[in-house]
From TrEMBL:
One of its GO terms (biological process) is UDP-glucuronate biosynthetic process. This is UDP-glucose 6-dehydrogenase. It is an enzyme of class 1 (oxidoreductase). GO terms for molecular function: NAD binding; UDP-glucose 6-dehydrogenase activity. Gene3D superfamilies: NAD(P)-binding Rossmann-like Domain (3.40.50.720). It catalyses: UDP-alpha-D-glucose + 2 NAD(+) + H2O = UDP-alpha-D-glucuronate + 2 NADH + 3 H(+). GO terms for cellular component: nucleus. Residues 84-209 form the UDP-glucose/GDP-mannose dehydrogenase C-terminal domain. Its EC number is 1.1.1.22.
Amino acid sequence: SEVAYAVGKDSRIGPKFLNASVGFGGSCFQKDILNLVYICECNGLMEVANYWKQVVQINDYQKTRFVRRVVSSMFNTVSGKKVAILGFAFKKDTGDTRETPAIDVCHGLLGDKALLSIYDPQVTEDQIKRDLSMNKFDWDHPQHLQLQNPTSLTQQVSVVVDAYEATKGAHGICVITEWDEFKNLDYQKIYDNMVKPAFIFDGRNVLNMEELRKIGFITYSIGKPLDPWVKDLPAAAN
């Protein structure tokens, strides 16, 4: 946060550019980095190419690390547990899901047999289920060439119309997109309708962790002091 503040003093960049999160997404940033890798390799600059490859690898690691935190905090398994996913677009105020970190987070949780309830104010149910069943990078192909994996999402994934429905009966909540409406939800109402202990994992640092802890939530927010529940878990060192 301090680095983002300092860099943000330069009006050409802005303070939001370095905000920590579950990972960057969108159609441009990763593509541009990989183009830079290609140019470096073509010019024999293998050390420079490897440097930029590491940016993509660290971004992938951040998403994996987030999933590990969720699983380890919830007694080392999310099998059969309902997890609410708040936000699916790669950033707020758009319905764009290209390379959104939500896809990798959902795949990681589904791999441990979680039951996902997903809400995003702009992304449609068809788009979410298409993204979760599509091979990686197939979104960049014409639609008739977008091959779908024969995975059954119907039993593990539901897409709902609001955040309260998504969180009702859930064991945990993952905030993946920084939609403004998520800051203003009635979290006491949400807590009352969740399975206890109730967990919140804020992948965008948009929620007030202290207020949520007072309600009774066990919380995790990227780069912030750890809740006593999770600070001694193995994932805390990774």
